[in-house]
Design goal:
homodimer; about 350 residues; Rossmann fold; Dehydroquinate synthase-like, alpha domain; 2 domains; six-stranded parallel beta sheet; 10 strands; ADH_Fe_C (chains A, B); 3-deoxy-alpha-D-manno-octulosonate 8-oxidase (chains A, B)
Chain lengths: ~350, ~350
């Protein structure tokens, strides 16, 4: 048996207001006055001076606002990289992503594509990246995806939705400032938080489970229960704990894998552009068969927080479209092997997946 | 408020048998045929072919057996560094520590002192190290100290027992192979496991606590209870979980601090050479006043596992000797501030500490 040698985020700050230290951190990383820092910032923060006044722009640094309304695309990565190369004579000193999973994944991918030839789609898969990425920093402003800690950056390409999984993907620096999540709308808070919850369920119930992933997964699961079920926390405590849940949930799947919900949700996203958090929820809601207890508690939390999920998202799809989703989902072999075991192909048939998708 | 920007271990492997991958890992890190890897190995493994046959020695690599019977010393670090420099023409490709906290701390310190002038004692303190350490790998063979994850290497110097705390201290690579701990003697298993338990208690009850440290500390505490109290685990599960408890306990104090037990235990070690694990136990056993519930559970575990602690270790000491211990303990200001709060000097007097030491 050969084990993964997992690359970790190099440095981490945690604390309310730690975002204020971004300037100090970057000042030691600037290569020269002409090598800019590129800030990729969720465009919900346009005009938000509470955030923007603290983004330490200097010299030729550039701030690019990015919409997180759609899942990140390989073509989008290529466009941002081109824009950076055309605007600046020197290679940037670093890329700083400030936002949720979409922005963080874009920041990771852009930092890789600055130093690697070709297009982002060429690197979707496992360990295809040749050259070290440039310095990159992640500042999550919404908690749950675990993008701040993982060695992947999940992108929708022309042929597939799949991550750039590489040792160069993890951030060199992460700033965990829970205060930055205070204005996340409730439905988004729930969907993204549930991404973390589902990571735990899929990791803890997977065949790849090991004591490493279990300890992280159990802790993230406990934190999710404190936040979404028990509800005895102050707003600040809930923000702090959800940020840590996201981190631990990310570490849990880092060393194991996700499962059925993620595989099927990737299919939905690829075909319909469904955002990852809500997509996971839509799928997971129908997975009692695989995760009985986990789905039961999920429904309880959904009810408790008054969340209504979209229904019938697959109602008008034709067979061709179902086939596309099923192809994407079945392509994620490690996820199925983790969820079901080595003989997963005997259980997970195309018909089975179609029946499940039809319920959604 | 300024937060710590914590440097993480760069890479981590977890799994039973993962030690077999050491050769593969090192092969990509060898600078050239004349730049050796130096393996610092606990001398309990002398003649142990189960371990030794898997240490991938090649070219001019050197294996140095080291006794862990005493706490690591700054003078010992200087001697090992001198031995390495005199034996090899080229700077080593890396230092690999295979052992418990003593060996791991020596490996970290040696990797620093290869690239920094002067003596190890010059760097005892916080952020005194100027130059990056050489590549260094930690392979724990006993679980609990958290040395595999921390940014310190605790050394006894001529004037003090204090760590070299620096951003260059953490390992570049850690191999967590719980199987390597299978032959640890029971008393040692208990004392070192309790080091982890005490880390959790001190972190969770400290004024420096934050959601980051809390989540790690709570998980490590839960794992300690599974291992030392509930006792429903197979040997293998207990080994796996204790290795993760040590990791999480280390992460918990990494981002907060230890407390009364560690401060006073450093005094004992400095004066009497008491090993860290047992020293912590001897001290903690008398700290009901500070950690009521924690000490209660500790005594339960001690009884359950039939552990008898030495008594009267301070019985024959004179005032001069008490003063030495008290000076060492009081010198560790952050530990006291974490344990008691900013006004700790009003509570922790020299008389108070003497009275406590006299009980031990």
């Amino acid at each position: 048996m050969k084990y993964k040698n997992y690359p970790m985020v190099s440095r981490i700050i945690f604390g309310r207001g730690s975002f204020n230290q971004l300037g100090d951190i970057l000042s030691t990383k600037r290569l020269n006055a002409k090598a800019p820092f590129i800030f990729l910032v969720d465009d919900v923060f346009k005009g938000n001076s509470w955030i923007n006044s603290r983004i330490p722009i200097a010299y030729d640094d550039q701030l690019i606002y990015i919409s997180a309304n759609e899942e990140p695309k390989t073509s989008q990565v290529d466009e941002i990289v081109e824009q950076i190369i055309l605007t600046h004579k020197e290679r940037p000193s670093g890329i700083i992503g400030i936002g949720g999973g979409t922005i963080l994944d874009l920041a990771k991918a852009v930092s890789i594509m600055i130093t690697n030839k070709g297009e982002a789609k060429d690197y979707q898969g496992w360990d295809l990246v040749k050259n070290e990425a440039i310095y990159h920093v992640g500042v999550p402003t919404i908690s749950g995806t675990g993008a701040e800690v993982s060695r992947t950056t999940v992108l929708t390409g022309p042929e597939k939705k799949l991550g750039i999984n590489s040792d160069y993907t993890p951030f060199d620096q992460v700033i965990l400032d829970p205060e930055l999540t205070k204005d996340v709308p409730k439905d988004q808070w729930f969907y993204t938080g549930m991404d973390c919850y589902i990571h735990c369920i899929e990791s803890l119930n997977g065949t790849y489970l090991n004591a490493f992933s279990q300890s992280y997964g159990e802790k993230a699961f406990e934190l999710c229960k404190e936040i979404f079920v028990e509800n005895n926390l102050s707003d600040e405590e809930a923000q702090d704990k959800l940020m840590m849940a996201s981190w631990h949930g990310g570490m849990s799947i880092a060393y194991s894998q996700v499962g059925v919900a993620h595989a099927m949700s990737y299919g939905l996203s690829y075909l319909l552009g469904t955002k990852h958090g809500i997509g996971n929820c839509i799928v997971f809601n129908h997975l009692e068969e695989f995760y009985t207890e986990g789905v039961k508690l999920f429904k309880q939390m959904k009810k408790y927080h008054g969340i209504t999920l979209p229904e019938g998202v697959c109602a008008d799809l034709d067979d061709y479209q179902f086939d596309i989703m099923i192809d994407v989902a079945l392509g994620l072999e490690p996820l199925w092997e983790n969820a079901i075991g080595k003989n997963w192909k005997q259980v997970i048939t195309r018909d089975k997946l179609k029946t499940l998708y039809q319920k959604m």
